[in-house]
Amino acid sequence: MLSFESDYTTGAHKNILNRMQEINLEQQKGYGGDKICESAKEKIRKACECEDAQIQFLVGGTQANAIVTASMLKRYEGVVAARTGHVSVHEAGAIEYTGHKVLEICGHDGKIDAGELSEFLKTFWDDGNHEHMVFPGMVYISHPTEYGTLYSLKELGDISGVCKEYDIPLYLDGARLGYGLASMSADVTLPDIARYCDAFYIGGTKVGALFGEAVVFTKKNMPKYFMTMVKQQGGLLAKGWLLGLQFDTLFTDGLYYEISKNAIDMAELIKNGFQKKGYRFFIDSPTNQQFIIMENERIEQLKSKAAFSFWEKYDESHTVVRFATSWATRREDAEELCRII
Amino acid sequence: MLSFESDYTTGAHKNILNRMQEINLEQQKGYGGDKICESAKEKIRKACECEDAQIQFLVGGTQANAIVTASMLKRYEGVVAARTGHVSVHEAGAIEYTGHKVLEICGHDGKIDAGELSEFLKTFWDDGNHEHMVFPGMVYISHPTEYGTLYSLKELGDISGVCKEYDIPLYLDGARLGYGLASMSADVTLPDIARYCDAFYIGGTKVGALFGEAVVFTKKNMPKYFMTMVKQQGGLLAKGWLLGLQFDTLFTDGLYYEISKNAIDMAELIKNGFQKKGYRFFIDSPTNQQFIIMENERIEQLKSKAAFSFWEKYDESHTVVRFATSWATRREDAEELCRII
Amino acid sequence: MLSFESDYTTGAHKNILNRMQEINLEQQKGYGGDKICESAKEKIRKACECEDAQIQFLVGGTQANAIVTASMLKRYEGVVAARTGHVSVHEAGAIEYTGHKVLEICGHDGKIDAGELSEFLKTFWDDGNHEHMVFPGMVYISHPTEYGTLYSLKELGDISGVCKEYDIPLYLDGARLGYGLASMSADVTLPDIARYCDAFYIGGTKVGALFGEAVVFTKKNMPKYFMTMVKQQGGLLAKGWLLGLQFDTLFTDGLYYEISKNAIDMAELIKNGFQKKGYRFFIDSPTNQQFIIMENERIEQLKSKAAFSFWEKYDESHTVVRFATSWATRREDAEELCRII
Amino acid sequence: MLSFESDYTTGAHKNILNRMQEINLEQQKGYGGDKICESAKEKIRKACECEDAQIQFLVGGTQANAIVTASMLKRYEGVVAARTGHVSVHEAGAIEYTGHKVLEICGHDGKIDAGELSEFLKTFWDDGNHEHMVFPGMVYISHPTEYGTLYSLKELGDISGVCKEYDIPLYLDGARLGYGLASMSADVTLPDIARYCDAFYIGGTKVGALFGEAVVFTKKNMPKYFMTMVKQQGGLLAKGWLLGLQFDTLFTDGLYYEISKNAIDMAELIKNGFQKKGYRFFIDSPTNQQFIIMENERIEQLKSKAAFSFWEKYDESHTVVRFATSWATRREDAEELCRII
Fold first, then answer.
1. Closest by alpha carbon to D148, among D181, D178, D115, D176?
2. How far is D90 from D106, CA to CA, in rounded Å?
3. What is each CA distance from B190 to B44, B145, B202, B243, B256, in whole angstroms?
4. From D49's CA, which of A63, B108, B129, D150 has a CA 20 to 30 Å away?
5. Using an 8 Å Cβ cutoff, are C146 and C288 in contact?
6. Complex-level ipTM beyond the 0.95 threshold
7. Which of B134, B135, B314 is the best substitution to test chain A (most A C-beta atoms within 10 A)?
8. Do D70 and B75 touch (CB under 8 A)?
């Protein structure tokens, strides 16, 4: 069975497992106070061209989103996000569980628009009644988005500008950041993100790690006693060096970019395959997730040979399905997919 | 200065104050365990034609919404509401503060549509991914809505039907319920509401009381230890009889309906006045709130003579403004308003 | 039936009700933005000899405690209180519901000890592990305490000094503050409290008002957007002037002190009565609550003639019972009680 | 440097890492829906002699405690625990963050007493005022406790009996469960725990795994939609099979017991060493944590050669320190420690 179901169906890059073996019985300090974490942080700071960056490794994406949001927001604030954002739809209410509203605005192929954001914030502040409303206290974007799309540098800069104008932080969910950086359409670099965003995370779980996300605060703005809040939300890993080790490995000799490139190459390969066979695309995605509008009958035939995700109903006879590649996707599997579709 | 700013700018019906004077130094049991509360509850049960109704008096509307929602929902559930609903927009995140998401769907003049609700619920349950989403655990409607509109009996019945189909409770916010019941367009009675809704509240604050809302559970479904949860959310009034006394008075000899009728009569009077002068209405409201699209210049002139509310920007030169009548609005003031507009 | 069950079994001082009648149909601004609230605040500032005091009126005590605590604490902080404190025991977890721990330390007749507090704070900060613990972020005391006892000026000053040393605010729950100020043992004045505490509330519900507590921030430290947080926790009264009016009345011509004095006089009267009859006291209370160790048999006989509260089991044959007087207790009733005990 | 600082300073048993290598590139289902998790659950069911056991793997102990507690408790309930319990003191308020109070009772060497628990529950229910209090909704114990002590079978049975009498679940925190089962004083087996407790977790992080705890519900009582609540609290691991693999390995051929035994053997070895040298013990611990009362001067000398934990101040010249062994402690290190103390 070919597997294009998601980008988290295999383990980790071999360098990571090998290194885990090597240091397995070495004594380490707990809770991320070890030297491997320090080394990983330093490498990330360099990759971000952000000397001041403060970094905390966390285990997963929902956890990262919930912890960052609940730690940066004031009690009376919510986080602005696209209606299709991961925090809006697919985190089982993890943000609201911490007492904060997700202030949903329109998304366009998964992205928010700087002009609409500005209008939303202006309306809030102009409303005489705003003391009875949830204050917009942070802006959430994902890059790539849930639909695989990317912000251009200008779009990111504009959103950042609006956030600065209204003095609220911009937070970027980089669950699949590697694939965004490695995309052939990539207009935004890691240093750009570090410059424009107040906080973001570099996704490991979906990009070569067993698990783990590196939360980066770029403006010396890590909330005070952040570690205690991480613990309070159940996100503090006792053996924190396991996270450090993974990011240290991924940020050695450009491994993070290199393996991300494989996912993009394989995505381009199957994209071409679908195009040649005349399939319609639901969205034009330049990253590792490809969304196809497929006849329901065709889906039935295909699903015995390949695993992929059902996204949403399109019309009576068609469904949107997703094919995801990853750092681990093999060329032979991508080619085989092209043959059988 | 004429006052049409809102329906909570004056005290209470005189019968209420007089009775407060009369019993002022009588000894009462605390926390609503007194006989006046019992009497008020019995009168409400009769007015609702719902013998089993369980009733808890609370102080205000946001409190009622937050307490009912947080007590009826399971931890993983949210409340479905129109995007313009009071719980969605104007309660400072009181629902989210209790850990629950407001699942916003489209509103139409403040109302939700049974068909769209059904579609929303169907999509949720059909989504293979729904275990990663917030479960719809209750439906919130307001009647009259935030725009003064009313559900027809058929509309209410249809929504109730959808809720039953998906086995989730229907909750109605009746902050201005009296004005909905007294409207000339009223198609829905208090017994209808008790029959179709699983919980609702009868608004006192805006309809003749100093403060107070009567939360009614209609299906023997008051959550167990509800009083403890009321206390936990800071809503338990020590001198609970003050709430009982007000509702006991309002539900004696049809006073609640009688004084609500005054608001409707005065609203119709000014509605006619605006129509005669050729004003455009933002919405056709059959209750005590009238929304007018007014030229910004005209607003400037008028606001020195009458108080009213700015609702939202309409276009560059016009604004939507709201004129609200109440149980206490004097005919002479309504007539004077008609003259000066 | 004589009533000594609690201090919230009757309505309000007649001046309050009379004034409510007088202004009943006057138009007021909502949510406490009215002139009566302004006047009341000014009078309280004068009574506190604290020109900068920022004041918010709330409806009840649990609400006040939960709102102040949750607004002043940071996310990772808890409130230090005596194990017998109202927030620790009798508020149905209202503090924890907002996500904060009550850090319980020993109480002595309801009071905390400055030395023990200092030790607790020192131990916390000395503990290398404290980042895994709840930070002490505020100190809660009640005055009078739940046992009717009072802090001396020195005790209050010492606690305040410890709080300053550790830079955490001191908050005083004054549900029965009037009775503490009017006590014959009173060593602490309202200006003392304003000077030593960072926040406190002046209780109205139990001291002459229908309902209402005046929260006072004494160091220009009212949390930003406090009103929004009050709304978020369901504590914002639409007709806020009802609270202002009550405190404006209570702080006119020393009424608050005068009526508090009655409760003290009556408490002393029954205290003497119990002493003369040879009853044992559970605690030596100088305020309006008197705790008696009574034989179970005697309780059975007495409770058909007088209402009082069961406090706790003392031993197999005795129970601690509480007799509470109030601003409204009549001398004839207190004298009658003395006769029948 | 000898390391006796804690039991989570090294990686995992080699079988775990080897197996991770082996299956690294196999495709797995996400979120724990894979076959390895199924196999691990089956092995745990057998080890517990509890066919009906429902199991969820989680990443860490604080997370497990917070998720289980917040999912099993009703909104108005709290969890009863020893004042020294991990949830009471060392989880940064993770329980309170979910809105629930930890109802602290006295601990005796880390354990609670069935009689005192019964008295606490009786007093709660007898208190006429209990509707204003936090309901005891679960009992939390740890085994081994934070002080290394163990419950006897009778003690556990008695506590379980009290819980049954009051119809509240008993939950056991088994962060170091292996060491409790392998202790020479062990009176309680895994099937005993499954029989007496309603829920518990088998600790992996401190007992041979990289990370991971296996939460076991023993009475078909896993809360409905538990997975959604795990997600909501940020505890759902995308690559859930990593947890399954670790527990599958630990519960193959008795590995969990075998490696736990090493910690016990090494603890006994150093215990004897300290005894021979005449050190005083703070507590008589039969498990892998040994608490010594040490002269401050001696501590200074020793800490350049061995890592250990400062527990608490004992008196002016002595401190309680902890030496912890683990599954990975080498005999040569334990012997060397005995020499240098």
1. D176
2. 16
3. 10, 16, 9, 20, 12
4. D150
5. no
6. yes
7. B134
8. yes
Q: Is residue A290 a contact partner of residue A322, using CB atoms and an 8 Å limit?
A: yes
CA dihedral C157, C162, C164, C169 (to 10 degrees): -90
**Tokens standing for residue D135:** 């309901």
What residues contact C1, with CB distance under 8 A and at least 6 apart? B27, C305, C306, C307
Longest dimension (CA), chain A: 62
The DSSP annotation for C162-221 comes to HHHHHT--EEEEETTHHHHHHSTT----HHHHHHH-SEEEEE-TTTTSSS-EEEEE-SS-
Cβ-Cβ contacts under 8 Å for A298 (sequence gap 6 or more): none
Dist CA B204 CA B274 (whole Å): 28
Helices (H), chain B: 14-23, 35-48, 61-72, 86-89, 94-97, 114-126, 153-166, 177-182, 190-196, 226-232, 241-250, 255-276, 296-302, 331-340
Give the closest-approach CA distance of B88 to chain A in angstroms.
Answer: 9
**Which amino acid does the sequence have at B72?**
M
Question: Can you read off the two tokens belonging to residue C164?
Answer: 């300053």
- Pick from B92, B128, B310: CB nearest A133: B92
Please report how many Cα atoms fall inside a 13 Å half-sphere around the Cα of residue A222, on the Cβ side.
17
Report the alpha-carbon distance of residue B271 to residue B260 in Å, rounded: 17
Q: How far apart are CA A231 and CA B99, in angstroms?
A: 19
- Reading the block at residue C61, the tokens are 């005590």
D90, D98, D128 ranked by CB distance to C133: nearest: D90
Show the tokens assigned to C7.
């201090």
Q: Which of D25, D30, D4, D18 is nearest to D240 (CA)?
A: D30
Are the beta carbons of A216 and A186 closer than 8 angstroms? no
- By the 8 A CB rule, do A59 and A212 touch? yes
> If you compute the radius of gyration of chain A from its CA atoms, what whole number of angstroms results?
20
Residue A214 CB-half CA count within 13 A: 35
User: How many beta carbons lie within 10 A of that of residue A143, not counting itself?
Assistant: 25
- CA-closest candidate to residue A234, choices A62, A75, A96, A40: A62
D71 touches chain B (CB under 8 A): yes
pLDDT one digit per residue (tens) for chain D, 341 residues = 899 999 999 999 999 999 999 999 999 999 999 999 999 999 999 999 999 999 999 999 999 999 999 999 999 999 999 999 999 999 999 999 999 999 999 999 999 999 999 999 999 998 878 999 999 999 999 999 999 999 999 999 999 999 999 999 999 999 999 999 999 999 999 999 999 999 999 999 999 999 999 999 999 999 999 999 999 999 999 999 999 999 999 999 999 999 999 999 999 999 999 999 999 999 999 999 999 999 999 999 999 999 999 999 999 999 999 999 999 999 999 999 999 99
- Which residue is listed with tokens 């980089």? A174
Q: Are A208 and A250 in contact (CB under 8 A)?
A: yes
Q: Give the C-alpha separation, A194 to C297, whole Å.
A: 76
The CA distance from B95 to D76, in Å, is 17
Distance between CA A218 and CA A198 in Å, rounded?
A: 5
Distance from CA of C86 to the nearest CA of D (A): 10
**DSSP labels, D176-221:** THHHHHHSTT----HHHHHHH-SEEEEE-TTTTSSS-EEEEE-SS-
Sign of the alpha-carbon torsion through A104, A109, A111, A114? negative
Cβ of residue A227 closer than 8 Å to a chain C Cβ: yes
Run of H or E including B289: strand B289-295
The reply to whether residue C24 touches residue B11, judged by beta carbons under 8 angstroms, is: yes
C29 in contact with chain A, both atoms CB, cutoff 8 A:
no
